[in-house]
Write a structure and sequence with these properties.
9 helices; single chain; 8-stranded mixed sheet; two-stranded antiparallel ribbon
Length: 301
């Protein structure tokens, strides 16, 4: 699930969500308030259809009978674990990866305690740069997860990431990558121009933005993995007005960073859109895709 960022660790959501980590200017910070706000929409959007093939793969894993070891990359405040752990049977051990120790603290405190069958869930944390992930870092992993990660990587980082996952021989469930599709109802003549400017902002520098899912699927495919893709759009209406308003501010703000000349038209546009949102008259669909990667197991199984 793409505005202010450093090259090493971009951020996928509105600028208000990237705040500096005290004492460490190179570590971007995702505001926990934003992550809390989006968590219900993320949970509703994730592609449940990918869970059955994932469960089948996990049921046939080597070492069955031991704790399921899950590495959650770029975990933020841990929303992926809170969604997925209660949907999987058996004891689980989650290793939460993030560059920001502040978010790792929130993720640990809010971690789920039990799986679908009541089995225990334990957590550990690991601070590090996901863009430099290696297969060694995933030693012993039974599953890799990530949310809103692929679209903030470069092509080189995608290749490194794919190589690490396939090298570890474990499946990966990668959810909520943006794909460059936004629909607002009612429509407005400026929608398409703002959307195009936002997508261009997503692709700034070497970032893949809405091209990331295609690039990742190709990278995993070249390495012999089976890849399944399923749509996972946010569907925002009156019940999600607070989230929609924050998303609108970030969406338009990123578009203006990319094309400042839009400001004269975009500022009244944003005001009108926010008013419609507050009145319960605006609906937004933000396109994402979920990806399930099924590499060959280590040993060729």
């Amino acid at each position: 699930m793409s505005t202010h960022t450093t090259k090493a660790e971009p951020v996928t959501e509105p600028a208000l969500n990237a705040i500096p980590a005290p004492g460490d200017p190179e570590v971007p910070r995702y505001a926990p308030q934003w992550l809390r706000l989006r968590e219900p929409a993320d949970a509703a959007a994730r592609a449940a259809d990918l869970l059955d093939p994932l469960r089948i793969r996990l049921a046939n894993r080597l070492g069955r009978g031991t704790d399921l070891v899950v590495h959650d990359l770029g975990c933020g405040t841990g929303s992926m674990g809170r969604w997925l752990a209660p949907l999987l049977d058996g004891a689980q051990h989650w290793v939460l990866h993030d560059r920001d120790p502040y978010l790792l603290h929130f993720a640990t405190v809010g971690a789920p305690r039990a799986g679908a069958d009541g089995s225990r869930v334990t957590v550990a944390t690991q601070r590090g740069d996901i863009g430099r992930l290696t297969a060694d870092a995933l030693t012993g992993a039974d599953l890799v997860t990530a949310s809103a990660l692929l679209d903030v990587l470069t092509g080189e980082q995608i290749e490194t990431f794919a190589t690490a996952v396939v090298g570890a021989g474990c499946p990966a469930l990668l959810t909520l990558s943006v794909i460059g599709r936004v629909e607002l109802t009612p429509s407005h003549p400026l929608d398409a121009e703002i959307s195009a400017a936002f997508d261009a902002h997503q692709r700034r520098g070497e970032l893949l933005g809405p091209d990331a899912v295609t690039t990742a699927c190709e990278a995993f495919g070249r390495l012999g993995a089976t890849v399944r893709v399923h749509p996972s759009p946010w569907r925002l209406g009156p019940a999600q007005a607070e989230l929609t308003a924050e998303w609108l501010r970030g969406w338009v703000g990123a578009a203006l960073e990319q094309r400042p000349e839009l400001a004269e038209r975009a500022q009244p546009y944003l005001k009108d859109r926010l008013a419609a949102c507050a009145a319960g008259e605006l609906r937004v669909v933000v396109g994402h895709s979920d990806v399930l990667v099924l590499p060959r197991s280590v040993g060729g199984v």
